[in-house]
Amino acid sequence: MYEVVLRSDCDRACWDAAADTFTSAWAWHRSELLNARSQWLRTEDHSFCVRDRSRSDQIVAIVPLVVVRPRFLNACVGGHFESTGGPALSSELPRRSLKKVQEIIQANIRSLAISLKVRRCDFSSAPLVPQLLSIDRPFPNPMCYFGVKDTSTQSWVLSIRERALEGLWNGLEHRSRKQIKKAERNGLTADIVVPNSNICDQYYDLHIRTCMRNSISPHPKAYFQSLFSEVADAGLCKSCVVRDHVNLLSIQNFLIYKNTALYWTVASHEDALKLCANDYGMWKSIQHFSEAGLEYLECGEAFPSAPNGKLKGLNDFKKSFGGELYPYYRGKIVYQPVLEGVLEILRQFRSGGAAT
User: Fold this and answer.
1) Residue 255: domain span
2) Same domain, yes or no, for 274 and 347?
3) What is the value of pTM for the model shown?
């Protein structure tokens, strides 16, 4: 009755139609984002769908899934799966069929993990999926039906639709309003645009500089070229470009889908912080999304218990725009517990006791 089909063998229009229709799916399920994710180093796409052969091969579930190989010792430790967005199933499935499809998905991921020597699978569910935004009661982790161990966290989400522009301004923390006013005194300007190849070149230059300042490895340029062409052409991305009188200070990218937006990636000039470019860009983007009629803006994963350091700074920035804490459901399945346990100890040791 049901069959598993790799995304590469599935009609793209049918796959994306399912992503657009399913209330448990968000932008991470779209072909454009999966194609872009495949541009990361040591990453292979193994996404699949489940089709109902008794109903003209109608897609009843889509599962974004990539395997990420380690930089070293792949033959010894293997890679891990990432399912950003997690399995998305049709809300029209009867209860008995729903359970059957869930079992098929779980069994197929396990089969792939064995054949590819994958040691674990990390799942996440986007806080902006319609299914989660519409609930008004306690709601379990959607991944609990797939045998995962809960590793959920939280994210700052701003409700735009319920506030006029004045209300959004008043909802900003004092720190943020102060930064925005300072940016205005500094003569900053912000343009909200659909990104293109020209902006991609500018963004990548800033991305390299940002990575150098933070001692992290940059993504391949092909990844951003995919974002600023295929993803942007599909209407799934907008960029806020902030400048002063001399320099391009920052480019903030927002993922747009199902009348919601996610603060996605940012790259900035060395002077952006002191000139308050990122605060200013966020406020101008909030204004733009409000005027466009969007309902929610996710500002990013929250770290409310961080006492100090980089995580506290990130949390304070995201919190300052007036959002509320929403569940960010996550989970994982470990297929090689001994090996994964050893690697986790090594990760904690390398990071000075903080898990990565």
Assistant:
1) 157-193+237-324
2) no
3) 0.93
